[in-house]
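call fold(seq) -> tokens
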Amino acid sequence: MFGGDEGEVVVGQQGGVQESAEVLGFAFEAAAARKVPLRAVRAWSPPPVYGYSPGSMWIAEQFGGLEPFEEAALDQALEPWRLRFPEVEVVARVERGSAGHVLLSEASDARLVVVGRRVRESAVGVRIGSVAHAVLHHSACPVAVVPHH
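ret:
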């Protein structure tokens, strides 16, 4: 059902603890059921203000940069799931770049990729976001799209 016998489950994490609960829960359950590691990936980009004021990035770098904030957000989102699934080996990765590109790169040898899809409807029906769209079209392994609020 989830591809070959090798590889880990890779999950894209976005937002806070509550925003990613359904997605992380699904990924941890899939990894636990298959007895494989879980790689949790969070992509980030500098806020737009840095494009208008490159000196601001230099100031941020003098105080350790923005990546520690992203790492803390990922760790906070993973914490309840690590406690609930202690048997699942978790590798947390924070990468700077486009979420779709980062997730596809991290999942190049994955057994399953898990992404979220915010529940929202439009005049033409239910739509998925750009990250889920990119992963569905370019992933070399099966993809699970988990709706979340």
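The beta strands are 9-12, 38-44, 90-96, 112-118, 121-122, 125-126, 143-148.
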